[in-house]
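Chapter review: from sequence to fold.
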Amino acid sequence: MGGDGGTISSNRTYLRGAGKACHTADHPSNAAKRAKLEDTERARLILTTCAISGAVFDLTPNNCSAEDIVVCPYGKLYKREEALEALLRRSQQINNGGGGSDVAGALGSHVRGMKDLHPVRFYVTDSASSSGGNGNGNGRGTTARYTATCPITSADIGSGNVPSFVIVRSKNPKSKDKKKDSSSNNDDETTGVEFGPNVISERAIKEMGVEGLQSEYGPFEEKNMIRLAPPKAGGAFEEIQRKWEARMEEERVAKMQKKKDKKRKRGTTEEWSSKKKPETKTPLPADTAAAASIPAKKSSLVDEARSNIQTKVAQNPVLSSLFGGAGKKNQSEKEKRDALFTRNC
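The token string follows.
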């Protein structure tokens, strides 16, 4: 003891096992725990605040409407009014030549319009929490605290620890063809589905199955379900981002192909109509003159042939006697036969 110069205890290089114990924060085994805690805190903020303004969502049933909160394909939540204002500012910046990069950073370039934002309707439950105030005479009172929970498993979705999904109902293409009278008869049946909760936990989906949820939450497809606050650890967020980018590219190509087909169809129709017009075209004056000259040529040929025959008949006495002149019309049949016999002899 003593005489060895001593050691500085604050210098961890001289401490046995410094930074290697499992309970220390910088141990490699705690990196996954730290990432999980960060993802949980990040998910809690996404599920409780607006991604644009940062305002906390008011889940009070009287103050929160079924259409106040919307979700983007990346699982971020927005207030509907904030999202609309951001889209308007983006369009104004694009029209002014600004590009809309500032607004895209807040809203996200993956949101093309309101068609990419879907309503979120939480199943809200209240839990009593103690707070200072007068209620029981002892300076303390209880106030209701509303939280978003799963309607099937009752898990606390707002805590960020429970993976949850938003059910996006499939659009019915036949709904546009229905009359208002027929659709009004089904209002009582669809009101509960249209405005009921559409956020359930991943555990509920595994227990009930997609087919089992169709009667109450459908119709919907599993590929259209949106994961709320996907964790960045493990590549879940990158996978969702990759699928959405591929889907946007597919929709863009399909839209361009539709425009090309419409343009090609319009060009084919115009070409067909232009080819059909010459068939119904009225004849030109030259054609009309040529058509009128054909009967004149025919009549001139007939007259020429008739004159030639008459000349030959006049030159030949036999023919002239048969087809007769004006002076021989009074001959009898006997005289004609005798004259013909005499000429032949």
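Two observations follow directly from the output. The chain is about 45% helix and 10% strand. The beta strands are 69-71, 77-79, 118-119, 123-132, 140-149, 164-166, 199-201, 226-227.
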